[in-house]
Amino acid sequence: MNQRIGYARVSTEDQHLDLQRDALQKAGCGIIYEEAASGKSATRPELEQCRKALRSGDTLVVWRLDRLGRSLPDLVQIVADLERSGISFESLTEKIETRSAAGKLVFHVFAALAEFERSLIRERTHAGLAAARARGRSGGRKPKLGEKQVREIKALLRDPEIQVADVARRYGVSRTTLYKHVGVVAPRHS
């Protein structure tokens, strides 16, 4: 038996699910999974339970697209996973559903736009890094230790009486950072 299963989410505990719940019930959802979780949160246990309950032929219904995915690429991935399992998807507010050919087309246009957006971001990032390199700047975090400090540390560590942990503490870095900046030093007990 094909079911219409709803998923409702609010971002904070003080928001209410009533509007979503009413819309999902009106749309024929007999079961509704509900949770209060930030859209940015990767852990949404009720969504996971909902996805486990869905079977081929069922339809996952949400009030609005942003209730399901953390981002457009995330939403596209979730719907693609559902589609591979033979599960339809429907968003009530945007009037998007993937049961019909037209509905699938609309959703795949969304997917193409999401991929296009990712490509543009990637291109802009690479162009920005190339421009920075051309001006002599490199990306990434600044090294924790300067050249002068590395020379001082190397000199200190030549003395077998000085412990690596003491030097690390003195310079406010970890032993791993020392090994990375100073090169391979035989670990000494500290």
UniProtKB/TrEMBL annotation:
A molecular function GO annotation: DNA binding
Coiled coil feature spans: none
InterPro entries: Homeodomain-like_sf (IPR009057), Recombinase_CS (IPR006118), Resolv_N (IPR006119), Resolvase-like_N_sf (IPR036162), Resolvase_HTH_dom (IPR006120), SSR_resolvase (IPR050639)
Location of the Resolvase/invertase-type recombinase catalytic domain: 3-136
Keywords linked to the UniProt accession: DNA integration, DNA invertase, DNA recombination, DNA-binding, Plasmid
CDD domains per the UniProt record, alphabetical: HTH_Hin_like, SR_ResInv
GO biological process, alphabetically ordered: DNA integration
Active site: residue positions: S11 (o-(5'-phospho-dna)-serine intermediate)
PANTHER family: DNA-INVERTASE FROM LAMBDOID PROPHAGE (PTHR30461), SERINE RECOMBINASE PINE-RELATED (PTHR30461:SF2)
Family of the protein in this entry: Belongs to the site-specific recombinase resolvase family.
Protein name as it appears in the record: Recombinase family protein
Provenance organism: Acetobacter vaccinii
